[in-house]
Every structure is written in structure tokens, then in C-alpha cells.
Amino acid sequence: MKPQVIIIGRPNVGKSTLFNRLVGKKLALVDDQPGVTRDRRMGDATIAGMEFTIVDTAGWEDDDAETLPGRMRKQTEVSLEGADAALFVVDARAGLTPLDNEIARWLHSQKVPVVAVANKAEGSTGQSGVLEAYSLGFGDPVALSAEHGEGVADLFDALWPIIGEKAEGEESADEPSEEELLSGPLKLAIVGRPNAGKSTLINRLLGEDRLLTGPEAGITRDSIAIDWQWTDPQTGDTRDIRLIDTAGMRKRAQVVEKLEKLSVADARRAIDFAEVVVLLLDATRGLEHQDLKIASHVLEEGRALMIAINKWDIAEDASKLFNGIRGALDEGLAQVRGLPLFAVSARTGKGLDTMLHAAFEIREAWSKRVPTSALNRWFDDALEANPPPAPKGKRIKLRYITQAGTRPPRFVVFGTRLDMLPKSYERYLVNGIRKELGFDAVPVRVVLKTPKNPFSK
User: Fold this and answer.
1) What average pLDDT values come out for the chain (457 residues) when binned by 10 residues?
2) Annotation-wise, does 438 bind a ligand?
3) CB-count exposure of residue 419 (10 Å: 0-12, 13-18, 19+)
4) Which CATH number characterizes residue 412's domain?
5) 11 among the known binding-site residues?
6) Residue 456 belongs to a domain
7) Domain identity same for 103 and 156
8) Exposed/middle/buried for 152, CB within 10 Å: 0-12, 13-18, 19+?
9) Residue 343, annotated ligand binder?
């Protein structure tokens, strides 16, 4: 279950406005007059991947228990039972009142961790109220403007130590889990220039002449998908694979016939459909510029990429060739260094099982979701080891990071003055994610985002 966070405070301090801010919708009625909220209202809240249930409560009033305000207060008291945290909201513009102090004394007698929130703190008028809130005894108050969306990052910082471990985002009901995605057939596309041996390689894997092959370039026109079962010699497991053969992809200037244009377009669609793409090189021709263009396209589409050097059985000066291709790949595809590189032979079967075993491993990394707690621990360590620069004396503040998706892994970094962050520091973060969090040579997307007001439009 998601952790539960209760909003508590006297009437008209902005509890329902904060509730609406955190759920991202205007679910709770909001008005200038006090006492609009009477019943508890629950909603699903998310701050940078930290998911929790937020509960809006009636304003706390010091009335007889039998009156309507008294019964509303009783509901608020009951709501605290089983809660993981409480947000005690005060009005920074009005300052503390005797009722605020009474609520604070009651909260100190409870066992629930409390975060003091000084709402309406925008501008200079709220500063004195924020300073007053220190006297409540709940540590550093969070200066916030629920109406304008300011201070939500600070609220994340305050809540994370309390509910972070329990609030890691779960897969939505409509989105397959990581286990379900990895249990399905591996969608493996074989791409490359004409006559690199793509169809011959697939025939070798299948153990039959399933695809037409020959010395002529460009025999394959359609992208052919073949369902197949492979037994991993390393584990003995039988794994399902959907092999996709594609047409050879020549330089765009050389593609003049309409049929070849359609074939190349079909090959590009096959890349979009695939999970892992094997770029097949010809050992007798080495790495050419067109190979790098194909590789770049695969990475731009966010697919997991592997490189296989075919015709290894007839390669000359094999060690020099392998090291040369390795260096050229790292230089030409600097955004993803260390791509898996294999020496194979479609004619003899050399290296094919090793390549397929690695394809399942790279799909696992491509589908991986890092727990929010581990992700933010890494993020804090990365910032401590190499703090962001301060161009022209202006401090760039990186607040937190969340994983927005998988296949390919996508991350969002929140902070301030992110438009001034150098590209070199972005590369530092991407390389750290890949190296420290187990993404190896998988394409990783990092987006920089400054929190905005969702109601601005």
C-alpha cells in the first residue's frame, strides 16, 4: 500500500489548495471562506516519482465535540490513526495563532512524524511567518505557496526521509510489469548494409534455409519475422525469440529505386518494433560510415544495440581488425561507449550463442527500473563528488531525479537554472547512470526540468 500523508491545520490556511496541488487536479472545493472542507478527501499524489495517498481534512476548530465543528475535528483526529506522516499547515502571512499552537501541542503527543508547512509564503509578506513556524518544534518548516506551486521541491526533501522507502512508484495496472516484459519473446532485429550476411546468419540459427540467400546484394526486401525457440548452452534454458531479418540499408544517395526505398523504410520500421538490434558488419570490409549512420539511427530510436562482425572465419589480421572497430565505435558513437561487440561467423556458427545470451542480458538492462531510493542515493553521491558549476556566480541547484520510464530508460532531473547547466555535466550524469546503476551500453535519456505550475493554463 502507498504511504498515507494527512494535511492538518486550522481553517482557511490553504489545506485544500495544497491537496489539489499535490493530486494535480481541482478535486477539493476551494473558497476564501473558512470551513468549506468537512469530510476527509483522499487522492493519489506524486512528487518526482514518490507516490503516496494524500488526505485533506476539515479545519481544526476548538469547539464542543457535539457541535458540527467539533465532529469535524474528531474526523481529523481519527484520520491521523495509521498515517505515515502529517503536514501541519499554517498561514505564513497571518503568522501563528493560539489555535496553531494548540494543534502543535496535540501533534507532539502523537507518534506520527510531522512536517511543518508555512503556506502562502510567496513574496516578502510571508517571511516573518516562516520564521515564526520554527517555534512549533517540528524542525525546519517548508516555505510553500500551494496556489503558485512554489516550494514543492522542498516538500519532497522533507517528506522523502519519512516515506521515501515506502513511496516508490509502482507499475500502473495498464503497464506490463518488468517480469512480464522480460518473459515474452525477445524481439531481435538483424540490420546492416547489403550482403553483410543477415539472412545467412538467421538461417544458421534456425538450422534450415528459411530465408533466401546468395552472393547478390539486396536479396531481402521485406522485413521477415520468424518465431523460434533457442536453448541457451550456458544455462540450459529454452528461450523464445522473434528473429527479424531486414533489407540491407545503403547510403540514402544510392537508393534510387522505389522498391528499395520501400524496403529500407520497412527495415526502419522493424528497428522500431525490435527490443534489441544487432548491427551486422562484414569482416572483409570493416566498419564504414554507413554502419555508424545505421547505429546512430538505432540509438536515436532508443533500441538496445549490439555489434556483430560477421565472416570472422575469413577475416585477415583478426585481432587488429577487432581492436580497430572497437576504437572506431567508441569514437564515432561517443554517446554510448562500450557497445557489446562480438566476432561471429554465420557460416560456421562461431560466437552466435554468446551473442544471443548477451542479447537477453542487454534487454534486461534496457527494461530495468531503478528503485527511487537507490536512484536518489546515487544522485546525492554524484552531486557531492562533482557539484554542478556556478556560471557567472549563479548557483545551479539540482534537486532530485526520478525515472520516468523504461525501454529505453528515461530519467527526469528537477532543479533551478537548468538552462545554464553545461552539456558536459549532463554527460557526467548520463555516464554515471550507465556505469553505477547497471545500464551498461543501453541508450539512456535524461531530461532537465524546472517544476512548473500545472494550473498556469
Assistant:
1) 92 92 78 64 86 89 74 81 95 95 94 96 88 95 93 92 77 58 90 94 91 74 84 94 89 69 80 95 94 94 96 95 95 89 97 97 94 92 95 89 92 92 94 91 90 54
2) no
3) exposed
4) 3.30.300.20
5) yes
6) no
7) yes
8) buried
9) no
